[in-house]
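Quick check before the chapter quiz. The format below is the same one you will see on the exam, so make sure you can read both the input and the output lines.
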Amino acid sequence: MSAISIISATLANVRVAGDQKSTGTPHLTYTPAHTINGKQVSQKVKFSVYGNSNRGTDQRTGDPGRSDRFEINVWGKLADTCCKALSVGKELSLICRPQSYLGRLFNTDGTLRLDNQGQPIQVNKTSFTVTEIAFGSDATKTIEREIQEGVRPPQWNNPNSPDWQHWIDILKARMATTWDCKNAVFGYARVIDPRAGKQGVEISWDVYQQNQAAPARTQAFGDAAAVGSFTQQVMGAANGGGNSFGGPQVPMTPSGGFQPASAVAGRSLF
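Here is the expected output.
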C-alpha cells in the first residue's frame, strides 16, 4: 500500500465570480513575481468561480438546486494570461490540485472574527491550484455591458462588419499586455504589493523586463491607429504617474482595451 495519495479535482463549466455592474471593477487579485530572502516566488492570481447544480438545496433560499463557490489560485505565466482573459462570468473548465489549510474568518465588514479570548478564529479551508485550464465563452451580461460602455464594438461577432477585425485586434492587444511594474491594475486584476509589511521581499523586476524584451509582441498589434478609431478609443490606460513600486520604467505595451480610458483615468497607484 502506497503512503502517497493522488488528490485532484475537476471543475467543468464553472463561471468567474465578480461584480457585473461595472467593467472597471477588478475581480481578480494579482501578486507579482518576487523573492523572499532570495528565494524566487512566481506571480500568482487569485479569483473565485461558481458552479450551478440541480442537486441539493440553496443554502440561502431553501429552493431546489444550489450554487457553490470556490477560490482558485493560478501561478506563473498562466496567471498573467488569466489576468487578461477572465472577465466576469467567463466560462472555464479546470483541473486543480486541492490543498487544505488553516484560514482566518472575517466579518462582512472585512474585520477579523475573534473568539472569546480575543484571538483570531481559524477554520479548515480548501484552496484549488490550477494545473490545466480551458477557456469558454464570455457571459451574456458581460458582452452587453462592454458594448454599452464602449469596450467592445457592437458588431464584434459579425464577420461582415469592420467591428469583427477591430475586436480581433483588441483581443490580440490584450494578450500582448504585460504588467508595467507600477500600475495598480493589470487587466481584470488589482495588483497586490508583496512587500507590504514584510521584510526580505523584493519584486522580481527582471521577470517583467524580460516580458517586454521582444519588440515584435508590441509591433504586431500595438499600433492603435493601424487598427481603427474604435480600438484607439478603448485602448487608453492610466499608465502615467510615478513608478510607485520603485522598479524600472518598463516600456509600455497597449492597455488592451479592458475598459474605457475614462474608467481608469486617475486611478491611484501603489
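If your answer matched, good. Residues 9-259 form a domain with the OB fold (Dihydrolipoamide Acetyltransferase, E2P) fold (CATH 2.40.50.140).
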